[in-house]
What we know:
about 45% strand
Amino acid sequence: HITSPTRTGHGAIEISVFPSDKTQIGGDGQLTERAEVREAPDVRLKMGVESWYAFSFLLPSDFPIVETRLVIARLKQSFKEPWKDRSPMVSLRYMEGELRIYVERDRGQRRLYIEKIDLRNKWVDMVFHIIPKASKKLPKAFKDGLLQVWKNGEQIVDYKGALGFKDDEDEIYFKLGLYRDHMQIPMRIIYDRFRRGRNFEEVSISKK
């Protein structure tokens, strides 16, 4: 917990990842490391439940711009078998100086957004509106799924289609932090104002 810098209020969280932090082999066979926080099991949502997530993040001025895979926020679906720990159904990444958003589904990965931008030393406000696909449990209006994303108040993604995997658990959870392929340098990131709500007004930065 830190008291400065903050997006609003009197506190934020700073997360740092160092070489060999919580290492394991990723789905592509590469050695990965991570430092993350996640929603607790007793507050996690079910597949098919409409949800709104929001948070602000800040990359410090010395944040390294690298080609290595780096995920800074993701929505995961719980898995049944340990060897089926698949990629997140929604992921926000910053690689090669590009902000990227991906979705994962049974048909594979799809990139929905890419922007070449130096994000260091500035607060970025993100809002995610999500309805994960859950076969028979979805309202008729959403036979597949939905992902809408806003960055600093501007909508940058409007996707309708499958999200997640049919044979995984009926549970999702959000994660914030740094998840990357192995590197020999540390990284740190600051998060503020994580919110989950029922609509845009409940989670947006205008909501104090």
